[in-house]
Specification:
This protein is an alpha/beta fold and 326 residues long. Helix content is 46%, strand content 14%. The chain has helices spanning 3-14, 30-33, 36-45, 56-61, 82-93, 107-111, 132-148, 153-185, 200-214, 251-264, 291-311, and strands spanning 22-27, 51-55, 71-76, 97-102, 114-117, 191-195, 221-223, 240-245, 269-273.
Length: 326
């Protein structure tokens, strides 16, 4: 079943009970950040359907009171993270319709009412518009279009067809740049990431899942829109920064941070611009909502892997200091 068709069915089935009232995006770790594009879209385009992004564990411990028969809960996990499966069970107990996003079948797909398979961003030959983030964004756009009308829906669907070609081109463009950056960063113990608006989810994944988890280097993430309310105090000539310049309404905040860095920071500042990745080739009406779909695979598959090679830290081991059981 296509995503639009699935959302239409779910929303139609809800009509007898008053219709869809809210949406929740539930996942853990990088999968949680993978919902960011969908949440950002609904925050800025929906006037009728409230939407909330919440981690699986928090949903388990403190599910919002409004989750019920008029709710869609989208839960994402590549292979069935334990707390996400528990979250799915709780969502169903509360009466919500559950949609499980997955790579491999697991306990999550057994629990959820519906399931949508996605391709991992790790695979270069996968269509990067059909990853967990891409599918969630399609769901969000379908929900808004069906519930209240989204004037730019056709432009958005056209943009999805341009994501993978843009990714392939951007990947080749960024490889030598990433290698040079990684060589400069190979002895750093901390890399601070700045991002804003539609790019913030990508920045957070880069910090937490790539630099921290896979390479075990310190990496705080700050929002460019809030950078000058505390975090900017750490700026000096020796601090390493990685800035994402978004294509969208918050770009001015990124540009302000860049201007500040050029004046007060040193030679360890790197800027990755969404416009250089091909977002400027999408229609202005929707390009903002596709930042995540290009930034995230480029950061994961190009920059993280280049830094892994330069540092000699094997990202494929995904080493854990602690054995954690839920």
């Amino acid at each position: 079943m296509e995503i639009r068709e699935l959302i239409e069915k779910v929303m139609k089935d809800m009509e007898a009970d008053g219709g869809l009232k809210n949406v929740f995006w539930v996942a853990a770790g990088g999968s949680n950040d993978g919902h960011f594009a969908a949440q950002y879209f609904m925050d800025h385009e929906s006037t009728l359907i409230p939407s909330q992004m919440i981690t699986s564990s928090e949903f388990v411990y403190a599910a919002p009171k409004c989750v019920g028969k008029n709710s869609i809960v989208v839960l994402t996990s590549m292979r069935g993270t334990k707390e996400t499966i528990v979250a799915a069970k709780i969502a169903k107990e509360l009466g919500a319709v559950t949609i499980g996003q997955y790579v491999d079948e697991s306990g999550l797909t057994e629990v959820c009412d519906y399931k949508v398979q996605y391709g991992s961003i790790w695979e270069d030959d996968e269509d990067q518009s059909k990853t967990n983030a891409g599918n969630a964004l399609r769901m969000a756009m379908a929900i808004v279009d069906i519930a209240e009308g989204y004037d730019n829906y056709a432009d958005a669907m056209d943009a999805f067809t341009k994501v993978q070609p843009a990714y392939v081109k951007a990947r080749e463009y960024c490889r030598p740049l990433a290698e040079a950056w990684a060589e400069k960063m190979k002895n750093e113990k901390c890399i601070t990431v700045l991002a804003s608006g539609p790019a913030y989810g990508s920045g957070h994944i880069f910090s937490t899942c790539n630099i921290l988890e896979m390479l075990q280097l310190h990496s705080p993430t700050f929002n460019s829109c809030d950078f000058f309310h505390g975090p900017f105090e750490i700026t000096d000539k020796n601090q390493a920064f990685f800035l994402l310049a978004a294509d969208g309404r918050t770009r001015k905040a990124d540009e302000r941070a860049i201007t500040f860095m050029k004046k007060y920071a040193g030679e360890k500042v790197y800027i990755l611009d969404a416009k250089e990745l091909g977002l400027n080739n999408l229609k202005d009406s929707v390009s903002e909502y596709f930042n995540h779909l290009l930034f995230t695979p480029i950061l994961n598959n190009v920059y993280m892997k280049a830094l892994s090679k330069a540092t000699g830290i094997d990202y494929t081991t995904r080493r854990y200091m602690w054995k954690v059981e839920y």
